[in-house]
Amino acid sequence: MNKDKVIDSLAGIDDDMIQTVEALRRKYRHPVRLKWGTFAACLFLVIALAIPTIFFHQPESPKETMAPGDGPPSLIVNGIDYYISSYLAVSDELPDGFELAGETSVGGFEECPYYTNPDMPEWIYVYHEVSTDGKVDATGTLNRTEPHNAYVRYVDARLRGKDLVCYNGEYYISMWSAADYGTYPDVNHEYYEKMENTYGIRTEGDAPAGFVSAGITEFSGYDTIPRGALVSNEGEYEVYVNPTDPDVVLVATKWHTAPVGEKGETNHSGFNVYIRYDCPIA
User: DSSP assignment, residue 87?
Assistant: First the structure.
């Protein structure tokens, strides 16, 4: 695949694809429990299906982190896998603190500079051509621009797509995005199943007995490791805690469902379940 098709693939996300991927994400949690958000899931689908062979490598030790066609663009730096940001974060200016670390190639793009920051090892930026500013408009459509070079964010595989809350210095991960399998499991299988059986992945209605509001989270930004008394890397949400069960917090949410083939929708409100997480990259 040439670079023009790569660019078109990254920008060709429409509303129908967004709705389709969101419905599949809700219905089929196993075996992939990653919850990237609507746009993020669409981006992954576009890349995985449309780009058969995309991989990054360090010049001195070329490596594929995934088999061709198995996932999004990625590279290895210092033994850590990095994947393109779920949010397709791009910038015309190199963020402060990042410095040139080498060059790599991807698809039809050759000799792309990449940049690292010792104070933020969870991110790497690669400079290559894009045809989007990385922003999504009110309809959920990715803004398209003329092809141009930009700095594209790549995220540590252990952090990418993970919805995290930090409450009083303790980390919690959404059960939608927590993995209990694979190369980088977030929690062990027995613990995940125990918490799922106890609370489910999402609850509807009022908070269960014993849970009280801890307040509204600060938003640390996407692809970040939240730090503080009550901080989230997903957005600003109300969090409920239970003083007698420190292994879980509940994050208020709303969603809607519609019968297959029908236009009517039913609105729901409740809580996403977050469970204790060691957060090895914090």
Answer: T
